[in-house]
Amino acid sequence: MAIDRVRAALQAAGLAVDIMEFPAGTRTAEDAARALGTSVAQIVKSLVFLADGRPVLVLVSGANRVDLGKLAAAAGARVIGKADAAVVREATGFAIGGVPPVGHSRVLPTFLDRDLLAHDVVYAAAGTPRAVFPIAPRALQEVIGAAEIDLREE
Q1: Which range marks the domain in which residue 63 is found?
Q2: Domain count, the chain
Q3: Which of 84, 108, 137, 145 is the most buried (most CB within 10 A)?
Q4: Predicted structure pTM score
């Protein structure tokens, strides 16, 4: 089960987190914020992009859109494009709407939106469109080895 893979990855990293499930769903940042009673800015959007054809994971604040130029510079790529559903599933092992920041099928270069670090706690998908987990953004960054960058589109 997808949630079990996320829980196992977090436990392997020494983190005990409470995965929460919401029947109404948390597929979008807005849905998750509403279900949790928090701000959209505290929701982690886990997005897969293709950097010169290679998948990269981008963890961005739910309040932000990714600046593709900034991402290209950080990834050392000339061309950035959004990955389609098949590429996301192949690269991560999860479907769009429930992609977590951990527990992927393979290790991806990962970039963390600096704006997430303004919060004490953020909420990330836990493998399904109905599950999320709370985590301190610095702990998340350390667990996944993400590069911290300014990703916000101005």
Answers
A1: 2-149
A2: 1
A3: 137
A4: 0.94
**Close Cβ partners of 136 (under 8 Å, ≥ 6 residues apart):** 120, 121, 122
Closest CA to 50 of 10, 21, 19, 90: 90
Supply 93's token pair. Answer: 């092992």
Cβ(133)–Cβ(126) under 8 Å?
yes
Give the integer Cα–Cα distance in Å for 5 and 72. 30
Examine the pLDDT at 140 and tell me if it is beyond 90. yes
The residues that bridge with 42 in the sheet, in sequence order, are none
b/e map 59-93, b = 16+ CB within 10 Å: bbbbbbebbbebbbebbebeebeebeeebbbebbb
- Specify the CATH number for the domain of residue 115: 3.90.960.10
CA distance 52 to 134: 32
In a domain, 22, yes or no: yes
The predicted model gives 24-44 an average pLDDT of 90
